[in-house]
Fold these 3 entries.
Entry 1:
Amino acid sequence: MRDCQDTRMLEDTVKKILQARVYEAACETPISPASFLSRRLNNRILIKREDLQPVYSFKIRGAYNKMAQLSEAQKAKGVIAASAGNHAQGLAMAAKLMGVKAVIVMPRITPDIKVQAVRARGAKVVLRGDAFSEALEHARELIAEHGYTYIPPFDDIDVIAGQGTVAMEILRQHSGPLDAIFVPVGGGGLIAGVAAYVKYLRPDIKVIGVEAEDSACLKAAMAAGERVTLDQVGVFAEGVAVAQIGEVPFAIARDLIDDVITVNTDEICAAVKDIFEDTRAVSETSGALSLAGLKKYIQQTGAKDETLVCINSGANTNFDRLQHIAERTELGEQREAILAVEIPERPGSFKKFCKTIGKRMVTEFNYRYADTEHAHIFVGVQVKPGGDDRRAVIDKLRESGYPVEDLTDNELAKLHIRHLGGGRPRKHFDEEVYRFEFPERPGALMNFLTHLPADWNISLFHYRNHGAAYGRVLVGMQVPNGDRTHVEEYFDDIGYRYWKESENPAYRLFMA
């Protein structure tokens, strides 16, 4: 039973959604049936197409509605935001339509395609800092200097009301049975608006938040009973890469949502492919998040013959990212197993190995001669979804006498080892191996090297650009014994995210 204060907050939020001014800038987006996916998963799956907004994301709704509430004096001084994503483009377009000056402060690592998109919509772009926090601090300085009005991306009731019009459209467009709506979660503005409207009118419909597992700030807050700040935030689904759920969104949504589901990188990539196959739309990773959660919900609950809606929140993706996304889709669908297998180093071994796995597609095979007795192969094998077939392949190989290591869920193997050549060094030496996320900007590598002591030797280096704000880097270092216990102190000073991989089986089998 909700108390009076909660009921009043819910009613006030719904009233603001009904009064929201969004259609001077946004359009009413359609709901597309996902016919192929529906047949495959035995449920009726519908996709709310916010990727079809003029700025290719739902963010135009909240930005415009917030600006519509400003006084003439506030508009005359201009508006400002710190953003590297869809909020920046939504605010730029809203300001242009209203004839208001807009300043967007973006981190220097923001991909150029996003910078140009904001400028093309008439906003002034200021590049400052390497992280969002630095851009936000500079925005505050400009507010103090010029009197701009700050337009927040999610932590504001008028922004939430604008985003809530998505739910208003869903219930109007689909008046029949509806079991659940899946909503991508970053700062929480969208799910707060959707949950408020849906639960007020149709409390029987489940509202389920979906987060990337490495930026699950809402799930953490729900578990703690209060907002928490994540120590680290993953950036693959950059549109939802938020360390703390918004205060206002959490106050509204915490007692309204039915569940929060988290998904990994591979599951997100598979959902991007699913959306493309059913709609021919290329979703951004955070846009496909809700479908990834919907699929996981079906897998976990065994749901059948239900009507489920997911919100494709945006399509602002860099073309360069598509190669990496395509690499991970089969893993996300559990249709590929990545294995490290030891076979005898003698003629005919590969043929015998292929005969053992039977009539299965070998999707990848990497091998380099290492010694006269044994060979370690890095192999991809096509399997049936669900996990049972993968286990059957592994069991069959082991029964045939092959030592096998399952690397299907090993990030080091998927990001780096499968792309590295050269094999092991000729002589043994001690090496510390770490995986990093480097900001994609000039000087990032030099900054890293400058912080390392002069007597450390770089023994391994592999870099991959995924068309995102951060590149993935694998580094091996020969570290003098006196520095071994202080390695991570040096890395903490640099400020890049890192993971120790010296004992990772993929590294030990193929590179050590």
Entry 2:
Amino acid sequence: MIVTTTNSILPIAANVVIGTNIFSDIGASYVDFFGGRSTSYEKKMQEMYKRVTETLKQRAQAIGADAIIGLSVDIDEIYHQVP
């Protein structure tokens, strides 16, 4: 339950799409096979999180917001096949 002293709460959203390259994918395949952590994918995820939070901060400031409450980040994969 949300309790606030403000007159309104306006939802804002942001989307960020970042692609990986062939070398990241090959490296991640080896990590999948042998085990361990994929630092290249971790760096991409950190970059996505940073970019989306910066975008949300800018959008919140543009509407005069003082805070961002209830931040939720969802990460999905988009597959693209070349015909």
Entry 3:
Amino acid sequence: MSGDDHPDDAGDAVARSLDAIADQLDATLGLAVLDQPDGVHAHRKAVRRLRSTLAAYRPFFDADTVRRLHRTYRDWGRELGEARDLEVRIAVAERFLDDDDDDAAGARMLDELRTAYRDAHRAVARRGVSVEARDRRADLAAFLDAPPRTAKASRRTKRGVRRRIVKEGDRVLRRAAAATSGPGDDVALHELRKAARRLRYAVESVTRPPVGLFGAKADALAVSAEQIHDLLGDVRDLLAFARAYEAAGGVSDGPAARAKVEAAEKLDELPAAVDDLRSALAQFR
């Protein structure tokens, strides 16, 4: 990559952003392995940022190489996800359950979640320092040392990158149309959440240092994508708590009911969030 302040072309801009993400992976791995506060979350987010950036800008690099690297970090991300999802479920349960109440179902559920988290984190700690982890990082380093560029990587920086971001934005809107066409389609909502996350990271990877392209319009697009992602993540977590609490024998008109009401209220916010993204994308085009 060029040592100049500005990227040479679209491929150089993305390669620089991937270099920065690799630094984030290195900085957060130890925190995750040692179970430091927010450590698993921070490292998982770095993994997601890497995979989202690779996916969004894959036309700039050799498809098979990107596919292999994306798949390798997908498997690691899933292991991190098991631990992180349990962390979130514990936090949600603690918010809805009152320790002073005689709630045997809630206490039992929390005990099971905490035990499951300890087991999941032990797996993260083992795999985070394994030979597989070393090889995974070496594969990423090899990619970054000599990015396998395609002809599309040579497009003018802003024009080439903008085109990819717009395609990701349109993808989110298509997922939104599918998710809002019928009530309670969990699969469609999940696909929308993933698409919004990918758009967010695709934008952030090229608008933050060391790349720093675009400006306020791109920032607004990333914020609107994050809003959809976070909103649907909250809905998923609330409903997961409600289902687990009821399965543990909790009363249906207690904490589970409150969680379901909150989830419904958040889901009601989705159309407005999608409208925000649509407007932000129109301004960015």
